[in-house]
Design brief:
Blueprint: E1 9-14, H1 21-31, E2 36-42, H2 53-67, E3 72-77, H3 81-88, E4 92-97, H4 100-116, E5 121-126, H5 136-144, H6 155-168
Parallel strand pairs: 1-2, 1-4, 2-3, 4-5
Length: 174
């Protein structure tokens, strides 16, 4: 008699400031690995956020709805990742990798997280080759200097970023 398998829950944490096409790619692919994928939208003041935590949560929820993936939930958090993952019942942390520099940082974080809770595995997903250069920080910089961000974010996120830049002021006027 076969036993029933416990639901596999994964957490994909990030600031998502703003959510990019690279994030969407990892969400789509990560959702296939678990029964439920929780997008943990975290605060990180050191990243100089363009959007408030509530704005980012709403933005991510809208983008997930547009992807049409039913097993994804968005949850805001401001805590140690492993504590958040434990509270969510997660057995997996999903992280996206763009380049070797990402790997070095993520490898160190995975090692520290394993020390905190060896029962939660970290899984790395390589970014799609066409999406590897995309980073939220660069999207914000491009937008602040009046550049085109459409290749890196959805149309709705582009509108959000452009509106925020218009409200806060653009840089780089010659």
């Amino acid at each position: 008699m076969a036993g029933t398998r416990a639901e596999r829950i994964g957490v994909y944490p990030g600031t998502f400031d703003p959510i990019t096409l690279g994030h969407a790619d990892i969400i789509r692919r990560g959702a296939k690995l678990v029964d439920q994928l929780i997008l943990g939208v975290t605060t990180n003041p050191s990243k100089n956020p363009m959007f408030t935590p509530d704005e980012r949560i709403a933005m991510v929820e809208r983008e997930v709805a547009a992807l049409g993936i039913g097993n994804v939930r968005v949850v805001g958090f401001n805590a140690l990742l492993m504590k958040f993952a434990e509270v969510q019942g997660a057995s997996l942390i999903i992280r996206g990798l763009r380049a070797v520099a990402d790997f070095e940082y993520e490898y160190q974080m995975a090692g520290m997280n394993q020390q905190l809770n060896a029962g939660i595995e970290t899984v790395f997903l390589m970014a799609d080759v066409g999406l590897q250069p995309i980073a939220s920080k660069l999207v914000k910089e491009i937008a602040l200097f009046g550049g085109e961000i459409a290749p890196f974010v959805s149309a709705a996120v582009k509108d959000d970023v452009v509106a925020r830049v218009a409200k806060t002021g653009r840089m780089g006027d010659l």
